Please model this.
Amino acid sequence: MAVKELQGILEEIVRRLNDHGRRLRLLEERSRAIESRVSSAEDAILRNSENIRTEINKISQKLAEVETRIMKLESDVAKLFRDMSKTAKKSELQEVENLINLYSPLRGIFATREEVKRMIEENLNKQNVKKI
Model:
């Protein structure tokens, strides 16, 4: 019986070794699958990080362009304000308009040359008539 018991123990040991070997292979396969997934994830992360860096660079360039444009606009607005301070105000323009209207020959009563000549002749004729 000792041989049969020994043979039974050996068979149990072989069965357990086979079972452990099968479990070990399954674990190795799972480990390889996990390593493959991790590698794929790492590759995807590297690709995404490169794409993100590229996009960040583009955004940075656009922000720099926008900043330049804003600075130019601020400069232009400041120049406009300086130029506006040099222009005439509405009240000043109305004052000039009033002066022009005051001195305008179309609005004032002015005589033409012919009217002046006629008035001189009339005065001379009146003086000649009074002398006689």
In short: Helices lie at 2-86, 90-103, 113-131. Residues 89-132 form one domain.
